[in-house]
Design goal:
The chain is mostly helical. It has one domain (33-229). It is 75% helix and 0% strand. It has 11 helices and no strands. The protein has helices spanning 2-19, 26-31, 34-56, 61-68, 75-87, 91-107, 110-122, 129-134, 139-167, 169-183, 192-217. Helix 5 packs antiparallel against helix 6, helix 6 (91-107) packs antiparallel against helix 10 and helix 7 packs antiparallel against helix 9. The longest helix has 29 residues, at 139-167.
Length: 231
C-alpha cells in the first residue's frame, strides 16, 4: 500500500511539474511589468553597445579586432577602382584609403559613440515584448537596427565628416579618382562618407549581437535589470 501511495505521489509531482512549464511565456508576462521588460531591453542594448564601442572604436579596433573582420576594406571598389590602381602600380593609394578610413572609424571613440547610442536607445519604443524576450538570441539588437539605423546614420554624419577631413580621407579619394581616370573612362560613383558610416555601424551591430547572445546565455554578462532575458 505504501508503495502504491509513493508511486501516486510521484505521478502528481510529474504532472504538476509539466503544468508549470512556461512554454507560452505566460509566466514571464505575469511576473514582470512592461516597465521592467523595457528596462531589461534598454539595459541589454546599452551593455551591448558599450561592448561594441570598447572593441572597435579604439586604436586598431576596426582594422584589427577579430582578425580584421570589421576592417573598412572598400570591398565594392576592389574589382573596379582598386584593381585598376593595382594594374598600374598604384596600389599604395588604395591601401592609404583603407588605412585612413579605419582611423576615422576608430577615432569616433566612446566620447562620440556613447551619446549617439544613448539617444537612440532612449528614444526606442518597444512594441512586442514577448517576441523580444522569447525570440531569436539577437532579437533585441535586430529590433534596434530595424528602427534606429537611419537615426544612427544621421547622427554619425558630422563626426565622420570632421574626421575624414582631419585624416585626409577626402584628399586621398580625390587622388585615387584622378589616377583612376588616367587609365579608364569607365565612370565610378561612390559615396565614401556614407560607406564609412554604414560600415562602422554594421561592425558595431554585429558586436552588439554577439554580446546580446552572451547576455542571454551567460549570467556573468547580465545585470539585475536584464536578468529576465536569461535562457
Amino acid at each position: 500500500m505504501k508503495k502504491i501511495k509513493f508511486i501516486a505521489f510521484l505521478c502528481i509531482i510529474v504532472v504538476f511539474a509539466h503544468s508549470c512549464k512556461d512554454e507560452s511565456g505566460e509566466y514571464v508576462r505575469q511576473l514582470y511589468t512592461d516597465a521592467q521588460k523595457e528596462k531589461a531591453f534598454t539595459t541589454c542594448l546599452t551593455t551591448a553597445a558599450d561592448s561594441a564601442i570598447n572593441h572597435l572604436c579604439v586604436a586598431n579596433g576596426f582594422s584589427q579586432y577579430g582578425d580584421g573582420v570589421y576592417s573598412l576594406d572598400f570591398a565594392p571598389l576592389q574589382a573596379s577602382v582598386f584593381q585598376t590602381l593595382i594594374d598600374h602600380n598604384c596600389a599604395s593609394l588604395a591601401d592609404s584609403l583603407v588605412m585612413l578610413s579605419n582611423r576615422v572609424a576608430e577615432n569616433c571613440n566612446t566620447q562620440v559613440m556613447t551619446p549617439i547610442f544613448k539617444e537612440a536607445i532612449g528614444s526606442l519604443v518597444f512594441y512586442d515584448h514577448d517576441a523580444l524576450i522569447n525570440g531569436d538570441s539577437t532579437a533585441i539588437t535586430d529590433y534596434f537596427v530595424r528602427f534606429k539605423n537611419d537615426n544612427m546614420k544621421a547622427a554619425l554624419q558630422s563626426p565622420v565628416s570632421i574626421r575624414m577631413n582631419l585624416f585626409g580621407v577626402n584628399d586621398c579619394w580625390n587622388r585615387i579618382a584622378a589616377r583612376y581616370y588616367q587609365y579608364t573612362s569607365t565612370p565610378v560613383s561612390f559615396d565614401v562618407q556614407n560607406y564609412i558610416v554604414q560600415k562602422m555601424l554594421d561592425g558595431l551591430y554585429e558586436e552588439m549581437r554577439i554580446e546580446e547572445v552572451n547576455i542571454r546565455t551567460d549570467s556573468t554578462h547580465r545585470a539585475k535589470e536584464d536578468s529576465l532575458l536569461g535562457r
